[in-house]
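Researcher: Here's a chain I'd like modeled. Treat it as a single chain, no partners, no ligands.
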Amino acid sequence: MTRTPTRILTLFACAVLLLAGCSGGGDGADDGRITLRFQSLAWQDESVKANRELVREWNAGHPDVRVEYVQGSWDSVHDQLLTSFEGGEAPDIIHDASDDLADFAYGGYLADLTGLLPARLTSDIPERSWETVTFGDGVYGVPFLQEPRVLIANATLLKESGLRIPTPEHPWTWPEFRQVTKELSGDGTYGVAWPLKEPVSATLNLSLSTGGQLFHRGADGKVTVRFETGDQVVPRTVHDQVDTDHSASPTTLGSGGSDTLPGFFAGKYAMVPLGFSYRQQIEQQAPEGFDWQVLPAPAGADGLAQGVSPQTLSIAEDSPHKKEAAAFVDFLLQPDNMVRLALGDWMLPTGVQALKDPALHTDEQGWATGTALAEHLRPAPAQSVRGYAEWKDKVATPALQEYYSGAIGMDELRHRLEEDGNLVLARYQR
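Model: Modeled as a single isolated chain. Structure tokens:
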């Protein structure tokens, strides 16, 4: 059928409208109102509630810029975001973690926030936190929540043992921790249960305390893996607790943190190294009368230094309303609001002003111990390493799992992390 010019113009106009309607970024309504999509990964009830309440408060005070809450999931966020970026359907404001941002930032999917954020916000968050979201010359997220890894202990077993209770001012050393777990073992109880289903981040981040670095960037900007003495202390400690001392449960090595809690409550494990936010699950699930406490992770040559990958808020490069999106991020991260988000997630805020809030300094539920560790938190070693995700999944995770289970030794672990690992990273650094 022959199309007349009028029909062609009509079809063209419809196509334009259709494409506009399918746009992934926030759009303006017919009345001129802007709508932004905020994808949150909050999952705990208190955290979801806090995020939704803040969105409602923003919308009540900003009738011309409406924010739509979109629920995401930590389990699938990387692949989901990649698909949405490539399909032009990315949310305007993106909740993620800093160790997931490098490839998105270098790939041009995230907006450089330099100049978009107010001085109040940029000066309130320490430089060490900004380092986790800086790639090249740009800043591609706002780090706002972080959590140290701590020891959750059965307080009753610990008190009965007569052992010294560590504090942030006087923590256990790694050799002392190993000895403590031996003394706490026996009569059906292991001194510690290491949940290492995902062993890489726990190993690398705790190794900062012993001088571990693993990833070394040369003058040419390229990264190589070197598994040196400082990197070996933590994995060797775990291996020896399991294989030599029998003070660590071998069955939990393939478990997630939540999987260890029933055994912890039953007295099978005296301590479990967990992220700070696990306190909420413990508080909710612990049987009546169960006494638990929060202890700092062991210290090494570099003290209590520990790597973290903060939760972040980023803006999609394709968003047509970056200025308005940045204003919403600033609203979410006002000191009082940042405290609300931290309490909802049982984590620590990165903001200096928020961290001063009295609610975060109580002894109850270990808040004071966690807050005392905030100054020792450093960017996780893998923050800016391109190809880290593949290295972790294909090389480091299976190698560490085999080492912890006793299937391979330290020399083979080093070979695989370095030789196999550098082959993977090289493909991203050409």
